[in-house]
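User: What would this chain look like folded?
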Amino acid sequence: MARGITIRYDQRLFDLEENFVVFNPEKKNHYAKHLLTLKVIYGFKDCLSYKSHLKHLRLLKSLDLKGITLTDSLLNEIGMLVHLKYLIIRTKAKSLPPSFSNLCNLETLVVNNLEGSCMVLSPCFWSLAKLRDVRMECCTLFDPDINEPTVLDEDLRLENLRTLYVIYLPGSEDTEDIFKWFPNLQILEVCIEQLPDCSAEKICFPRLDVLNELEELHLSASWDSFGEYTHGFPLSLKTLKLRGLALTYDTLSRIARLPNLEELILEYTIIEEGKEWNMEAFFAERSS
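Assistant: Here's the prediction, encoded as structure tokens.
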């Protein structure tokens, strides 16, 4: 009996409603309830109808639905698949439904956001204690309606989380200690957004030097004027990419002293008000 299935659907070859039964619990598809792995590569987009369900696939451990744009009802049904460890979805939703708090075994969560949406990591996200890898095109910890973090417990920590991107944060004082909730991150991509009527000089960056296991960091800023990151960097960094920032010589000196740094990428950066950067001195400091 098949325990895994990969689907490449082409609606030009056969009719979906009559032939495709994995998502229909009313069809005689005895193998479906025994599936451990299901992957849909491409082709569905918005083709699945109201008859489609996921709740009967209760043994699934790996679910890859990047070939399907999920309806709200299907997204909610994923929360019934309590054995899931690996999940890839494509959705227009602005946040994860409360049912996701049931996914106590989930380790990998990948979300392909559609139509430029930004996924709010709602309170149910904080109950996923086994999460190790979270990858989204855009996500945020702040509820846009109240502009406050979605975390309900200040002492909560997602200690197993190793990868988090791309997370968007407002450049406010509230974000300075935000990464205390993810103390063991190894890969992080974060973009700082400028608040309305706020100059670059007033932008606040989160402290990144508290992430003692961080090896790869992509830090960018999304505004016209260049803000300055004044905090330190984790000594564990191997790859550092900075974009849209103003860098002083003190900042460059701190980067030069990172003992494990192997790759430095600077894009659209300003170095001390346009002065020439002495790269030879930088690398001399690296080797000293």
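The longest strand covers residues 62-70. If you want, I can go into more detail on any region.
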